[in-house]
Each structure stands twice: as C-alpha cells, then as structure tokens.
Design goal:
It is built from eight helices and no strands. The protein is mainly α and 233 residues long.
Amino acid sequence: MLRKAETKTLKELIQIVNTILVTRKSAVDKGNVRYPKMNITPSTAKTFAKIIERLSFVGRSVEFIRSMGLVYLVSIFEGFLQDMLTTLLLRHPFSISDQKSLTANELLSCDNISDAVRKISEKEASIVVNDDIQDVNRYLKGKFHIDLTQLANWSEFKERFYRRNLIIHNSSVVNEAYRAKTARGNVGDKITVDEEYLATSIAMFGTVGENIWKRSLYARRTAPVRVQPSKQR
C-alpha cells in the first residue's frame, strides 16, 4: 500500500501526464508538436523515484517467487519419485543393480538382511533420481515398464527439469546444455517463469505423479538395468 506522500505524488504526476497528453493532442492537430514546461518539485521527483524502486522490487520479487516455485515443484516431484523407486526396489529386490553395494560400515550398521536391502534400495533410488530426467525414464522403462514419455507432453515435461537447472546453476540464463536438450531460446537469453507456465507445470506434474503411482502398483520387474554414476547437470 502506498503512503500518503506517495499517493499525493502519484496524483501530481497523473495531472502532469494528463496535461502533456492534452497539450500534445492539440499540438498534433495543429501540426506543431510542442510540450508545455512542467514544474516538478525536487520532493516529487525524489518520491517518484522511490515508488519506481519499490515497484521494481515487487516485480523482481514476484519473478523470484515463481522461479523458486518451479524449483520447489521439481524437487517435490523428485522426492516422490525417489520414495516410489525405493518402494518398488523393496518389492522387487532382485531388480537392484548388481554393482550397487554397501560399505563395510553401512553393512555393519544394519540389523538384518531386510535392513540392508532397504538401505541399498534407498541408495540406488537416490542415484537414479539425481541423474538426467531422460536417464531416469530409461531406468523406469527398462526395469518396471513405466514410460514417462507416455504420461505427458514429454518435451514440455522434461524442459521443466532443465529450466530448474538453469535457475539454480546459471541464474536463469540459457546455456549450451539447455539449448541442446530443449531447442529453446538463444544462448545468453534470460528465461522467466510466468504465472501461466507455473500453473501449467503444477497441473502437469500432478497428472504425471498420479499416473506413475497407478502404474507402480502393477509394475513388473525386468532384467536388472545398470545404473551409471550420476552425471553433473
């Protein structure tokens, strides 16, 4: 909410703008564009500058909140995916990759075999989820017949992950990696998250999450799939 002094300043500025517009129209009609000399007091100019600064801050804050909203949305989804994968691996322990193992200390801390299976399942799920979303899909499809490309507009869905990476790691500026994976924007462009984009993302992730959960109930185990070490995104 604007303070009284700021409200007074805005009224004064509106009067000035209206005067300029009226004078300009009259001048244009006569073929001679000239503007009246306006007297803006130092206090008015100073207050106006403060208003602009505050409005600019509000705009940046809204943009920041939306960007962080996307980051949080993707993180929540990855958390859900990790929990679901852990559950699937516990249900099908022979699906755990052969190269996955526990350290001696981790193994000694286990109370029994079931505890060891749980820990190694959590470890594998964590590695998978922290990989590129396309590798995550290959893993899900290869092991449990869950194909993310069939659950949503794949290009739109995976773009959300790459945009999240840009926001976190590159100050929302398009780089070669984002351009190569999405074919969007130009290197050096700054991307934003507007209201429609965020709303669409929330609806999309909700639908995908629900469908993954439904498919996980009837997931069938296939031959073990080797999980490569997570690449830096």
